[in-house]
Amino acid sequence: MRKRCIDCLTRRIHVCMALRSAIPRQRFTEETLTPFADAKPYRYCDPVNRTVSNESMVHYRGSRYSVPPPYAGKTVAVASQGGMIIVQCGDMIIAEHRQALKAGQCIVNKTHIAELWKLTEQQVQLPQRSRWHIDFSEAVQTVSLQVFEEMA
Fold first, then answer.
1. Which of 23-37, 40-54, 70-84 has the highest mean pLDDT?
2. Strand runs (DSSP E) across the chain, as ranges?
3. How far apart are CA 108 and CA 114, in angstroms?
4. When comparing pLDDT for 63 and 32, which is higher?
5. How far is CA 144 from the centre of its chain?
6. Helices (H) and strands (E) in the chain, counts
7. Could you tell me if 38 and 70 are in contact, meaning their C-beta atoms sit under 8 angstroms apart?
8. Beta 84-89 vs 75-81: how paired, if at all?
9. DSSP label at 56?
10. How many CA atoms lie within 13 A of 49 on its CB side?
């Protein structure tokens, strides 16, 4: 048993030594590693959860960003990547905006606002306006200027 363990250990040592003594270029072709220049940079984004307001806006880092109206009241993930704000609901990206230059800005997509207006018009009924009609058919009373001169 002892001899068997020593033989096994000796084989392992020789295999490791053979690998160490190999030329790095030979090892590179055998290992099929990706060259560093070809590796894509890893982008880490730490999304935060936000609730979409009734105005279909999301607050992120002091600014507001629009999302499609059907997501109002839902929780979404917001992250910034390379100067862009990405809003996701589950695995689906629902909005992308440029990042606000300073806090307090409101960045909107015109289609999101148009959809919001359509929904608002459908839900809110405007009161019926009475139509004003001006008719100039009535005769205007005319008074002679002599009447005023006599009074003076």
1. 70-84
2. 48-51, 57-60, 63-66, 75-81, 84-89, 92-98, 106-107
3. 11
4. 63
5. 75
6. 4, 7
7. no
8. antiparallel
9. S
10. 4
Q: Would you give the DSSP letter of residue 57?
A: E
Evaluate whether 61 touches 50 at the Cβ level (below 8 Å). Answer: no
Least confidently predicted of 11-25, 30-44, 55-69: 11-25
Indicate the residue type of 82: G
- CA–CA distance, 66 with 59 (Å, rounded to integer): 9
Tell me the two tokens of residue 90: 């589950």
Count of all residues that appear for the chain in the document: 152
Q: Is 89 exposed, middle or buried (0-12, 13-18, 19+ CB in 10 A)?
A: middle
Rounded to two decimals, the pTM is 0.55
Residue 151 phi, psi (nearest 5):
-75, -25
Q: Which residue has the tokens 């000796």?
A: 10
Q: φ, ψ for residue 28 (rounded to 5)?
A: -60, -45
